[in-house]
């Protein structure tokens, strides 16, 4: 994996500062060529398609993709543009919003476990189990001690999934406050985008620093089998390229294989259909 991507990966089990990660570049002084990066993304999309076919056919492993971000950072468009490379038969997207009354009667991971991918499948979590150490903590629904306990449950939960053959890769779409402001104003100014605007998003924006602290604690769950990546999200085309490249790298590490045939192909002949009689 290229050095820039390694720099975007959160060190395993360590506390980091979000300020040390970029929102709009690759930690490099080299100018970015948008057209070339978009072309490279197209090539990566084909690789993703080919690797997913092997994963699905082999049926021995699974991949869980976690997307977390602030409002307006592009979780939905990431699902559309990047995950669109996958065959729908082998992938499902789970959106985790406010828990239902039934879900609240169980532990916070109950609703999550039901959506993890089966062998051969890819699951995309648009928001995830991390909401229970982010939103709940920032809004005072749990205290710091409960958040710490939830983080330990998450570490153990992800280890359980890994032991069962699921590889996990977690993306935080890192948006600057300036870019978020522009995107929120765009939603307000364009009637066709009013449906995307939620007044509660402004309340969360006012809690920017509180969310930053909560995310920095959440990133301590980064592990080799479940790494966190902080993805620059101010430029959508760069975001798509980086996530596509990381997913290709992840699937190549998993090394999915087509299953071996239990017959000799040379022993069989596909006969022509005889002409219909009468």
UniProtKB/TrEMBL annotation:
Superkingdom of origin organism: Bacteria
In this chain the Polyphosphate kinase-2-related domain maps to 32-258
In its keyword annotation, does this UniProt entry include Zinc-finger? Answer: no
* Name of the protein this chain belongs to: Polyphosphate kinase
Species name for this entry?
A: Deinococcus piscis
Q: Which InterPro entries match?
A: P-loop_NTPase, Polyphosphate_phosphotransfera, PPK2-rel_1, PPK2-related
Q: What keywords sit in the KW lines?
A: Kinase, Transferase
Q: Does the keyword Transferase apply?
A: yes
A GO molecular function held by the record = kinase activity
